[in-house]
Amino acid sequence: MSIVGIGVDVVDVARLAERLERVPRLAERLFTEAERDLPVRSLAGRVAAKEAVAKALGSPGDLGWHDVEVRRVPGHPPVITVSGAVARRAAEIGIVRWHLSLSHDGGIATAFVVAEA
């Protein structure tokens, strides 16, 4: 296996909370149905993860927010699932495995993604 892409992103939790409150349909646009009911701290981590995935792919312009979903099973690391344009781009460059690390501190959510072929 070899690393074909990395991405990192940070999201200010309070700023995301304010935007979600101000723009009524923003949560529907950014998050899959399974993600929407999470606390804002977790949502900020998911935004950071989605942005980090895009960066790992070279930030092609046709990626959709719903094309990346972060799932979490208690006691296990978070898992990235991809579909649509993200899955197509990942297949084009041979990505077979995603690694994700999420961290929260000082009101900031951070995501680090490694794409492996």
TrEMBL record:
GO CC, any one term: cytoplasm
Pfam families: ACPS
Main localization, broad class: cytoplasm
GO biological process: fatty acid biosynthetic process
Keyword annotations of the record: Cytoplasm, Fatty acid biosynthesis, Fatty acid metabolism, Lipid biosynthesis, Lipid metabolism, Magnesium, Metal-binding, Transferase
Gene Ontology MF: a single term: holo-[acyl-carrier-protein] synthase activity
Catalytic activity: apo-[ACP] + CoA = holo-[ACP] + adenosine 3',5'-bisphosphate + H(+)
SUPFAM superfamilies in the cross-refs: 4'-phosphopantetheinyl transferase
Residues the entry annotates as binding Mg(2+): 9, 51
Compartmental location: Cytoplasm
Cofactors named for this entry: Mg(2+)
Domain 4'-phosphopantetheinyl transferase as annotated: residue spans: 5-93
EC number: 2.7.8.7
Similarity comment: family membership: Belongs to the P-Pant transferase superfamily. AcpS family.
Record NCBIfam families: acpS (TIGR00516), pantethn_trn (TIGR00556), PRK00070.3-2 (NF000832)
Function comment: Transfers the 4'-phosphopantetheine moiety from coenzyme A to a Ser of acyl-carrier-protein.
Protein name (record): Holo-[acyl-carrier-protein] synthase
Organism expressing this protein natively: Flavimobilis soli
Annotated gene: acpS
